[in-house]
Fold:
Amino acid sequence: MLRMTQNDGELDSLVRKRIRALRVAQGWSLEELASRARLSQSTLSRIENGQRRLALDSLVTLARALDTTLDQLVETASDDVVVSPMIDAAHGLMRWPVKGDPGMSVVRQRMTEPPPDNPARMRAHPGREWLVVLSGTAILMLGHRRFRVETNQAAEFPTMLPHAIGAEGGPCEILGIFDRDARRGHQRPEAGAGAGADADAGAGDSGGDGPRA
Structure:
């Protein structure tokens, strides 16, 4: 049997809920997951409902069927929720690290200015970035190309391409996600990086009106 070293009742309940949630996320019925895990449907139902003890062999096969690992299925991290991002009032940004990967960070910003017309004001540096538009329309400049990114759309791009981000037709609100190299690239001050240069480039780069909760 599986030995649970923390609060047994809480962990037991968490594992059962996690199994069910992963199954539902895949769109699988009890019968389908049971078949994939080579368990009977009644056994799986009792596992999810707390009517059967959690056996190690069953958890191993369920983890494999759910395309996860036993460690992930029974992990009990209690400090994995970040509810208070840091407000960078000087730059008009809301930012927070990605806890699972300290090298990454997320920035939320409201932008009002279009991207710069002058290519010399575009940035290039190692790394990769992701852009999600929460509201409005953003313009992503990549080298000589211009991409329109609408509300609920996203873009991913290598930051070795000269790039800039700005708003079109009114304010837009964005999330910028930066890997370790991209974050470092934006932490280095650059002369001439002006309005719309990027979401994490600092004061004056986006014409931001400050963070909104």
